[in-house]
What does this fold into?
Amino acid sequence: MASSQPGTGVSGLSRLRTALPFSSRDWGLLLVAPGVLLFSSFMLYPIFYLFYISLTDATFAGSVIGGGAELIGLANYAQLIGDSQFWTSMTTTWLFVAVSLVLKVFLAVGIALLLNHVRVAGKRYMRAAVIVPLGFPGIFTITVWRGMFSDARYGVFNTILGRYNEFMSSLSAPELLLFDVPIGFLSGRWEAFFAYVTTEVWLAYPFMVIIIVSALQDVPRSLHEAAMVDGAGALQRFRTVTLPAIKGPVLFASILTAATSFQQFLIPWVFNQGGPSRQNELIIVYGYREAITFNQFGLSAAILIVGIAFVGLFMYVAVRYGGLAEGVGDE
Amino acid sequence: MSLLASALALVRAKLVALATAPKRFSVMIRRAIYDVRTGKRTAWDVTKSVLMTLFGLAMVLVLLFPLFWITTASLAEGTRLFNTSGIFPDPATYNLDAYRWVIYESDFFFVDGDWGYPQLVLGGESGLVSFRWAGTDTGPGALFNSLYIVSVTLVAGFGMIVPAAYAFSRRQFVGRKRILYGYVLFTQIGAGLSIATLVALYSLFSTYGLTNNLFILGLFYAASAIPFNTWLLKTYMDNIPVSYEEAAMVDGASFLDTIREVILPLTKPGLAVVLIFVWLAGWNEFIIAQTLLRPENYPLSVELYNIATEGRFSTPWTRFAAFANLFALPVAIVYFAAQRSVEDGLSFGGMEG
It folds into this structure.
C-alpha cells in the first residue's frame, strides 16, 4: 500500500533507486540476506576453497595460505585414479550404500506393515517406541554399538553367539551352523563391514518407518475391503493396493538415506577408524584421514571434491525425481 | 515463555495418555473375551491377534535392545560387565555409583567434578559488575561449553531463520526462487557435507586463528542448520491464510502488529520444531568440534567419545553409559514430547508437495 512516491524525494536518490535492479518491494531480500550470507561463508565458500586446495600440492593446514603450496593443476586427481586405496574406498562405500539400502528398505517396510496391521494391539505405542533411535545423538548410539560389537570374548554379540552355539550343540546340530567365537567384529575386514551395515540400518530405519507409515495411513480402508470382496489374497492385496501407495515415499526415502549412507563418517570412525589396515575407509573417512592424519591436504581435498560431486548427484536426483522442490515455484 | 507452557501441556497430555493405557488395554481384553463367549469372534481369530501383537512386541524389544543394554550397564558400576554371567548385569548389584562418578568426578558439569557456584563481583577490574565461578579450582566443565555453543547457534539461527522464512512465504523479491531452490538442494543432505568441507574450514580457520573458538563453532552450526529449517518454517507459514493478515490490516493493525499478533502465534508449532532441530545441530555434533577445539573447550559430545576410546580393551562402559544417558536423555525427552510435530517436520518434503 505504501509505495514510493516518485518526484517528491531527492532526484538523485530516486534516480539511483530506478537504476538498481530491484525495487522497494524487494525489501524481503534484506530479511533473507543474513542467512544466505552466513550459510555461504561457512558452507559454500569452503567448498570452493576446497576445490582450490585440490589443485595445489598443500601438505598441511598452514601451507595453503601461508605459502609453500603451488598450483599443480589436476595432478592430485591423476594421482587418485592411479591410487588403489582410492578404488578400495570407492568400492567399499558403494557396497556399503547398496547393502544397507536393501536391508533398510526390507526392514522398514516390514516394521511399517506390522505396526499398521489391524491385528496388532497397541500399535500406536509400538510405533512411538521403534522410532526412539532417532531421538538420540549419533555419537551416543554409534559408540554403544561399538561396545556391543566388542572383540572381547564376553562382548555382547560374542556372548549371544556363544549361547546360540550351546543351544545348537544341545540339539546336536552340524558344525556348519555353529559360529567360531569370539568373532573379532572390529578387527576383520568383512566382520567390520557387517558391523557398519548393521549399525547404519539401525540408525536409518526410523526415518523410513515414519515415511512409510504416513503413506500407509493415507490408503483408504475401503480400498482394502474392496480388494477383499473381490477375493484378493493377502499377497495380492499387498501387490495391488499397498505397494502402489508406498512406492513413491519409499523411493524418496531411499534416495535421501542412500545419500546419508554415502557420507557416513561417524560409524567407521568410531568403530575402528576405517580399519583394519585402511580397508573399510568410506570416502569421507578416507579424505579426512589423508588431511588430518597423513598431512596430505591437496590429495584429501581432491578426494572430498569427488565425494561432494557424488553427493551433488544425489541431491539432483532427489530434486528431479523425488519432487523435493515442489512448493518452490508456487504462487 | 508461552512456548515453554505449550510444551509442558504437551508433555502432560502424553503422560495422561500413557497412564490410562492399562485401563484401555484391560477393556480391550474383556471385550475380546465377551466377543468369544457370545460367538461374535472365534477363539482362533482372537489367538491370531494375540500372536501378531506378541510378534510386534518382540520386534520392538529386539530393535531397542542396544538402548536397554546401555541403560542397565549404567547401573552396574563396580561389577565386571563383560563376564561369564551374561550380557546384563545382575539386578541385585544395581547402583548409582556411575552417575555419582559423572557428577562428582568427571568433567561433565565442572572439570574433575569440582563444583562451584556463580558469583557476581561488584566493582571489579572489568567494569561495574562482573561474573565469575567461585568455590571451584578447576572451572566449569563440558556442559557449559555445550550450552555456550548451543546458545550461539540458537540466537544466530533464529535471528536468521524466522525473518527469512517470513520473507520467503509472504514477499516477492529478486532471486527468491533461486535462493529457495538452493536451500532445498541442501536441506536433507547437509550433515556429511560439513565434514567434507571440514578440511577447507580447518585450513582457513587455522590461518586466521579461529580454531578453538566456541563462538565461531556455534555460528558454523547455525549456518549448517539454516537451509533445512528456513524451508521447514516457510512451509508452516504458507499454511496460514493471508486473509488473516488482511483482516488485521483492515482493523488498523500495522505491519509489525500482524507479525506479532497473527504470524508468530500461528507458527508456534513450527517454531518449536525448528527450536529442537537447531538445538540438536549444536548439541549433537562431534567430529568438527573435536577437530577444531582443544581439550579445555571440548563439549559433551567430544568428552563422551573420549570416555569410550580411553583404552582399546578397557572402555569403562558403566561410566560411559551414565555419562551418555545424562547427555542424551534431556534431548530425547524433549524430542518425544514433540514427536508428532517432529515427524511431520521430517517427512514434509516431497510427500504432499
